[in-house]
Amino acid sequence: MCVAVPGKVMEINGDTAKVDVMDNICDVNVKLVNVKPGDYVLMHAGCAIDVLAQDTAREILDVFAELEEEVHDNA
Amino acid sequence: MITLERIVRELRDYDGEEIKIMEVCGTHTSSIFKNGIRSLISPKIRLISGPGCPVCVTPSVYVDKLVDIAGQERHCVLTFGDMMKVKGSRMSLTEAVAAGARVRVLYSPLDAVKIALEDKNTQYVFAAVGFETTTPVYGVLLDEITKREIHNLKLLTSLKIMVPALSYVCENEKNIDAFLAPGHVSVIIGCDVYKELAQKYKKPFVVAGFEGEHILAALYEILCQIKSGRHEMRNLYPNAVTEKGNLAAQSVIQKYFELKDDSWRGIGTIEKSALKLKPEYSKFDAGSSFDEFEEKIPAGCRCRDVILGRINPPECPLFSGACTPLNAVGPCMVSTEGVCGIWYKNRGGKG
Amino acid sequence: MYIDLSHGSGGKQTSSLIHDIFLKHFDNETLNKLEDAAVLDIGGRIAYTTDSFVVTPMFFRGGNIGKLAVCGTVNDLSMMGAKPKYLTAGFIIEAGTDMNQLDQIAQTMKEAALEAGVKIVAGDTKVIEGSGNVYINTSGIGEILKEGVSIQNCRPKDAILLSGNLGEHHAAIMSGRMGIENTISSDCAPLSSIVADLLKNGIDVHCMRDATRGGLATVLNEVSESSHCRVEIDETSIPISREVKGFCDILGLDPLYMANEGKMIAVVPGEQAEAALAAMQQNKYGENARIIGDITEGAGVYMTTALHGRRIIDILYGEGLPRIC
């Protein structure tokens, strides 16, 4: 139900970070997460709500890799 | 590694008993639509949009209250764009603006701080709608309001929570075979909560991300589980969703809010399905209690049956006649990505 | 110096406003006569249109309301296969408007008119109470270069070309309002030269439309409805910059529905698609042009998605607003 996008933390100043979403820089509140510059966060309505393990493209590959076992289960 | 082609082939070629899969997240609904997922899978796999859009399930009395506030002198309603088109019993906020009311669309509730500080003679009210994803943001806002001693900014809340709604659907509609569990709500609440639901109701719950590939992968996982008679929670959005969720966000929710029964537009009252400000924070409340109120379902509206997957929108007597995107009667038509909104766009053939 | 109500009195101040700003910039033989109406030489058939412009903020990255007012009318004429010749400009100016801003708006209009090869030959100013906003109406006359260019004229097997990246004007305007920093600039531009290039290269253009309010999606629906045909487009062929894509992701917007001020579609016979594309791409406003789809028998607008799914592209209901769900 909620639009949220991944972005890269550029710099942090107190509770606010500059986050880069495909060259769009937004001020994002980072009170709810532990982050450092260079981390990827998921932002929703001006707040970072999550620190991401990796970028989305990489993740899709991992999900597909994980589903491999199902193929064998159903073979 | 399994390929996307293989996943799509399996989903397309499925020819067993009809499977009904409910997604309960508006952004999943939107992604399914934008990626044309329905056209890629077997007609035997039906995707049903459940009660997952906070704007759509917000009762009309809430919109009425916003309209009233926005029309008062020296008052201004701050809102997400989503709420602008939603009709109350009299009008929408867009129509209220045309009649002279003050409303501003914001991207973040936190932007309200600066606005309230700049004009202390105006009473600002943020239209605080949302599920667990958005509620922590209001908590952060309340922290700021307190810290900066802002006295002219309050919330009008309509904050729903997901698990009671899922339980309600499971209890009341046995025909749903599996659930695509929400991605961003799960970021906050964690995916462990679905394990219990999966066991109790014996249905697969698969957490999915929002790319078309994510959704296809999750549908494939559900298909595999159903074929092999399993009903498990599976997290296919591990990059963002953990077992326990975001604990800091949960604690800020607990700090300010407590559970209450609430009315869901088109469905009715669901026990302990919403959050309200705790009594000690009532000074931040712009009058969110509508206890005396019971949502009236408009005559003829069958949104409840649509949301529960019992009928398709064209079976509703109001569909595309009395109820259209420009004049939405029921919640499913309110958002253009609600299930009736999508069917409306697709009326006149499947292409 | 600011505009006050006396600038609308019809007296001395009105006259100096007209001389000091508008005549200074728009300077041409016809306008300089200050007659009640312009007397023009027009041969053959003409296209004639009008449009009014209100935009907040008045100045934005890539242009201002004046540039919009000239380009908007120039583009509407161009889309009919006409060469824009003359414009009129009516200004409704609120008291409190900064003279320097007004001067800048007029300066930009002059430049845009020069580029598009049109003359601003008549005008009007009115001053009203308010808080410093300017509203502009422009009307324009163009000479028809190619007959029969019409929204009703698309036929099966025609190809659809889009002149460049989507969503830039809308995103530029909204970035400021939403406090998001980027370098997105409005695409506001006169499209008369692209049209001239298409016609010069012998393209038998069936229909042209600029994708302004309501975006590409709305224009394609108008094509489908008016020409009684189906429009098929391919998602992967639609050019969108990385920055606009990110901007749309943040706010939950769909670039297909976002306003452009310097982008057009051209519907041409299928066999001329490549030639038309080459002509567009040689123009500086068409560098990113693409063939995005074609016309078939039927009705509606359909898109083949990147995942090879199919999706209906409906018109926009209400205003495109940032959303969270």
Structural write-up:
- The complex is a heterotrimer of chains A (75), B (351) and C (325).
- Chain A is α+β, with helices and mostly antiparallel strands and 75 residues long.
- Chain A has one domain: SH3 type barrels (Roll), CATH 2.30.30.140.
- Chain A is 24% helix and 43% strand.
- Chain A has one helix at residues 56-73, and strands at 5-13, 16-21, 24-29, 40-44, 47-52.
- Chain A has a five-stranded antiparallel sheet with strand order 3-2-1-4-5, with no helix packed on it.
- The mean pLDDT of chain A is 86.
- Chain B is of the alpha/beta class and 351 residues long.
- The two termini of chain B are 33 Å apart.
- Among the domains of chain B are: 58-161 and 246-284, Rossmann fold (3-Layer(aba) Sandwich), CATH 3.40.50.11740; 303-345, no CATH class.
- In chain B, the strands form two sheets. Chain B has a six-stranded mixed sheet with strand order 4-3-5-6-11-10, with helices on both faces. In chain B, strands 2-1-7-8-9 form a five-stranded parallel sheet.
- By secondary structure, chain C is an alpha+beta fold.
- Chain C has two domains: 5-144, 60s Ribosomal Protein L30, Chain: A (2-Layer Sandwich), CATH 3.30.1330; 158-312, PurM-like C-terminal domain (Phosphoribosyl-aminoimidazole Synthetase, Chain A, domain 2).
- Chain C has a seven-stranded mixed sheet with strand order 8-10-7-11-9-12-13, with helices on both faces.
- In chain C, helix 1 packs parallel to helix 4 (99-116) and helix 3 packs parallel to helix 4 (99-116).
- Chains in contact: A-B, A-C, B-C.
- At the A-C interface, strand 3 of A face helix 8 of C.
